[in-house]
Amino acid sequence: MSIDLSLDRIRRLSGYLPTYTRPTCHITGTNGKGSVSALLSSIFRAASPSPEFIVGRFNSPHLTSVHDSIVLNDAPVSADFFAAARARVVQADKDHDIGASNFELLTCTALNLFETVGADVVVLEVGMGGRLDATNVIPDESVLVSAMTAVDLDHQAFLGGTVAAIAREKASIARSGRPFVLGQQLHGEVEPVVLGILGKIGAHLIDVPVVGRRTWDEGLDGPRPTANQIPPPPTPILAHIPCFEAPIHALLPLQGQHQLGNLAVALGVVSAIRTNASVSLPWIDRLTPGTVARGIRNTRWPGRLSWHTVPGFVAPILVDGAHNAASARTLAAYITSLSQDERPLALTFMLALSSSPPKTPSQTLAPLLSLNADVAVAPLPFSPPEGMPWVRHEPRDALVASARELAPGAVIWDGCDGNQDPPTQLRSALDWAARRQAEKGGLVVVAGSLYLVADFYRLLEETGETIERSMI
């Protein structure tokens, strides 16, 4: 099955299901939209911690199981609850001979589930693009605010070959009369495209607030962390947003300089809700500088510059789903920031990539394999993601060729048996990485695909650990 972007099928399917009415924050962008959604759902939970107040969140792709893409109050829905909602959607699809895609079925399942439980607020992450993405089926009346993180080249075969074309697709989730938060952009052509779309439909542009680092304050933040610790401590931040007179002082646990920009988008959404909400929200006054700061501090987002303790390793493993050139540059900058002296750092990469022409392995891997480091690479496959039969991993030979081109002196792991399943190959590669780390020190990094990250997490769970408990 190939990807066929269209709203025709999901609009028909939605017509046979209960009307979606939940107040929704709709988030698009190339990178960072998942982080923004995690920040927002955590902030909303901190503002209304009662179990009767329900915050829904939908992210894709899922992490380890398809039902974990749907979250209620920061916990994945149960497999049984998911299956019941999915069955209702699949039956409607079958009864009316619609032929919805797997992602359309999943999106309808999420929306139906949120409606069933009466979610007080929903954070909805776009799957790909925006204009024709299945999540864009939600009615105008349900949209509190739309937001867009940084836009870069990705999925060009579906969204267009230029940043401007991709921005046009993504910005088209904007709704008439509703606020639209635009995050900071690396490419100057994005903002004019967005402004043009907003002007045509009558949406309101909301600029993101400035979020900056501040010095550690033991009175606010607790005991000062030790210097050069791995992983680094949360980042102390200061933000002024229009809806509050008082500034926000918080600790941001999400790692990397880029997360300041993602937090700015999340705070822009909060400000838009406080000042531009198109519907009456009884909980809106619970969004205060204090509850927002608490929500920021409580945010967890596995698989995005997250650190995990793993049995057999002398140091935590860095796990990141960087899957395109922009996110690989972000990961490379973060790794560089960890270096404590001028000596080359020993880096052992566990790498897998999705096949996504015209994007090439070398384009994605160049920022990582060009680092001034003692590099070793384990080229790997990943398990086929559930419900996504079109996803394929790059063959080992392509990854090896890119590694040899980009890092001629790199050590390349050759201990795999191509007949073994992806988890077995990953387990063997991790054993090799543990031995190398014990000898050379340095970092072990799992990267290149969230599907590889999912395999890593499933192996972690086999040891009796959980993703949450292993995170530092």
TrEMBL record:
PANTHER family: DIHYDROFOLATE SYNTHETASE-RELATED, FOLYLPOLYGLUTAMATE SYNTHASE-RELATED
Protein name: Mur ligase central domain-containing protein
UniProt xrefs under InterPro entries: Folylpolyglutamate_synth, Folylpolyglutamate_synth_CS, Mur-like_cat_sf, Mur_ligase_C_dom_sf
A Gene Ontology term for the protein's cellular component: mitochondrion
Keyword field: ATP-binding, Ligase, Magnesium, Metal-binding, Nucleotide-binding
TM helices/strands, residue ranges: none
UniProt-listed Gene3D superfamilies: Mur ligase, C-terminal domain, Mur-like, catalytic domain
Claim: Flavoprotein is one of the keywords in the record: no
Gene Ontology molecular function, alphabetical: ATP binding; dihydrofolate synthase activity; metal ion binding; tetrahydrofolylpolyglutamate synthase activity
Stated family: Belongs to the folylpolyglutamate synthase family.
